Amino acid sequence: MGMPVNRPFAIDPTGTPPAGDALAVGGSVADTEIYPILERVAAAGGRLEDGEAARLLESADLVALGRAAHAVRMRLHPRKTVTFVIDRNINYTNICVAGCAFCAFHRAPGAGDGWVITREELRRKIEETYAAGGSQILMQGGLNPDLTLEWHEELLRWLRGEFPGLHIHAYSPPEIAFLSKRSGRAVDEVLRRLAAAGLNSIPGGGAEILTDRVRARLSPGKVGAGRWIEVMRAAHRLGLRTTATMMYGLIETVAERVEHLRRLRDLQGETGGFTAFINWPFQPRGGGHKERFSGAFDYLRMTAVARLYLDNIPNIQASWVTQGEKIAQLSLAMGVNDLGSLMLEENVVAAAGTHHDTTKSRLRALALEMGYELRQRDFYYRPWRQRARPAE
Ligand code: SF4
């Protein structure tokens, strides 16, 4: 039997029946329209349809939405634990030809402040990651025309040789597609070669909103929506697991947010290759609100709807890097089961002027206050154990 969702709820992370407080947060769809939808999808097996997802995104009752998402989260992850991973976000270059309108990180080829990471810098960053208790890196870069497929293979082989137990989570779909185009090799071959050189998994970056209209406006130099999905499909078929992401809050419509979710859910139905979904709002350049600003309520609503809609993606991560600890903590009551990465370094969001920092003990406190134990995990959501350390 499903959780009753016929009236507004107070947030209750234990999943026990609500006290009945309401919290209206704006929106345009009458609350009464959404309760039957929430009641059905909160029950085991209820699948959210596209029109229903749009109504939930436009609805006023954030608390009822969050309660339903939490019920689904507790069904998928019944243990009272919240997971996190320790890794380092390493950018191998800031030189990029894509020229995305929203990006404050990249530099054009030939720019005086463009750079490519050195082996010494890489070694130091990874050794610091091991010292902090992690054995994973998230490595991404701009679309740098000077870096060939062979350069990347050599980099991966070096990493694998120096750090045999390191989990290398690297190269988002736009980077893979760029390497394919630049080398004249099929995506499938590029992925095989990178995996043979040491690549373990692929981040879901560069997705933004997976519709061609939005991408043509914001990131015309990047892959289209169909190509992004194609790269992920090819990776999953080769056995490379990946994450899925969404950056919203720019020019997209509600229907386009739903289209993005639909593409992810459809591919996951085909391959089962996504481990997790992470969403965050666009961070305005310099921290200001020049563009349409997407605030905390929208973040929580988007996260809860994602938990309900993406019923075949097991994990939903909080984005404390963009939202800060308190909103990330609140999201634990609204569908999120993972606090994501305790990142030792983050450059892309920081370049836009958003700085949030945290520590393991603070993440533990956030989880405990919500009634959860914090558990460190690896990329595959297995309990973490220290892998092979670099040679002394
Ligand atoms: S978001 Fe990525 S692909 Fe786009 S300009 Fe920045 S570095 Fe390049």
SSE blueprint and pairings:
Elements lengths: L30 H12 L7 H8 L4 H15 L4 E11 L27 H13 L4 E5 L8 H14 L4 E4 L2 H11 L3 H11 L3 E2 L9 H7 L6 H13 L3 E8 L5 H18 L2 E8 L14 H14 L5 E3 L2 H4 L1 H7 L6 E6 L4 H4 L8 H10 L3 E4 L16
Parallel strand pairs: 1-2, 1-8, 1-9, 2-3, 4-5, 5-6, 6-7
Bound molecules: iron/sulfur cluster (SF4).
Iron/sulfur cluster binds next to loops.
Folded structure, characterized:
With about 400 residues, the protein is an alpha/beta fold. The protein folds into two domains: about 1-75, no CATH class; about 80-375, TIM Barrel. Helices cover about 40% and strands about 15% of the residues. The chain has helices at about 30-40, 50-55, 60-75, 120-130, 150-160, 175-185, 185-195, 210-220, 225-235, 255-270, 295-310, 320-325, 325-330, 350, 360-370, and strands at about 80-90, 135-140, 165-170, 200, 240-250, 275-280, 315, 340-345, 375. Strands 1, 2, 3, 8 and 9 form a five-stranded parallel beta sheet that branches. Strand 5, helix 10 (about 255-270) and strand 6 form a beta-alpha-beta unit. Helix 3 (about 60-75) packs across helix 11 and helix 6 crosses helix 7 (about 185-195). The N and C termini lie far apart (about 55 Å). The relative contact order is 0.15. It binds iron/sulfur cluster. Iron/sulfur cluster binds next to loops. Iron/sulfur cluster binds near residues 96, 98, 100, 105 and 174.
